[in-house]
Amino acid sequence: MPGGGRRRTPGLRREEVAVLANVGVSWYAQLEQGKDITPSSGVLASIADALKLNPLERAHLEQLSGQRDFGFSSIDCAKNENVQRIVSSLGDLPAVCLDRYMNVFAANPLAAYLFDCTVGRNCLESFFVETDNYDKYQSRSDTAQMLVSQFRRNAARYPGDLRFADIARSLSHQSTDFAELWSAYTVGSDLRLQLIYTDDEIGSVNFESTTLEVSGETDLNVLVYLPRVEEGSADVWNSVRQSFAAQGNLDSLALSLSA
Fold first, then answer.
1. Are strands 203-214 and 217-227 parallel, antiparallel or unpaired?
2. ∠ CA 126-57-48 to the nearest 5 degrees?
3. Strand 104-107's sheet: what is its strand order?
4. Which residues pair with 203 in a beta bridge?
5. Contact between residue 221 and residue 75 where contact means Cβ atoms under 8 Å apart
6. Confidence (pTM)
7. Tens digit of pLDDT for each residue in 69-121?
8. Where is 205: in which H helix or E strand?
9. Cβ-based neighbours of 92, under 8 Å, separated by 6 or more
10. Taking CA 12 as the corner, what is the angle to CA 6 and CA 14, rounded to the nearest 5 degrees?
11. Which of 21, 51, 15 lies closest to 188, judged by CA?
């Protein structure tokens, strides 16, 4: 685009986006204002190209436009027992299931022991409000952005669910960090948590999470935490598990980082 004049805010002007996307300026203005118009998938793709959106941002745009309709449905809590059994069966690794609001839907004993993941606890509130959990995260700024981004993506999937707005409003009052990230409309981060478990006597273990979807439940995700293979971490991890097992929580100590 040719330059011209000073800009009060960064980014493209509305007229420039319309030109790049090959749509009318007045039509694009109505789209921005949320008027009752239905853009085609081709037009959405053109707008996404003009704005240079990444794949996750494109998916978010499609959700907002109604091209991806996930509908509104409540979680089938009758399935909680099955999900809990699956999570608990991963006894050698910490595992937790989160619902659409980032609440802990299910957790196994190892996750509860290492990361204080208890059913009903909200990960957003735990992260942004409870300051005693600061040392649990490997990169606090990256985790903050990821959590808010994931929460916004979940909210876009269920536009009829007003509880998202209630949670965001409450957290914005309690945390300036959340308020800033929420107002920035950031999307584009997959659900991924890097955690640290530290024992004053044994040492520290770094964990990477892998996210698994629950079949038939689009708003439930199981996070399995894998200890990172680092120098000396295998001995620390085995010592942590032995400490946990000494409390009668594990029957087997077969897992090790070298396996």
1. antiparallel
2. 160
3. 104-107, 95-98, 217-227, 203-214, 194-199
4. 199
5. no
6. 0.66
7. 444 444 455 556 777 777 877 878 899 999 889 999 888 888 888 888 888 88
8. strand 203-214
9. 110, 241, 250, 252, 254, 255
10. 105
11. 51
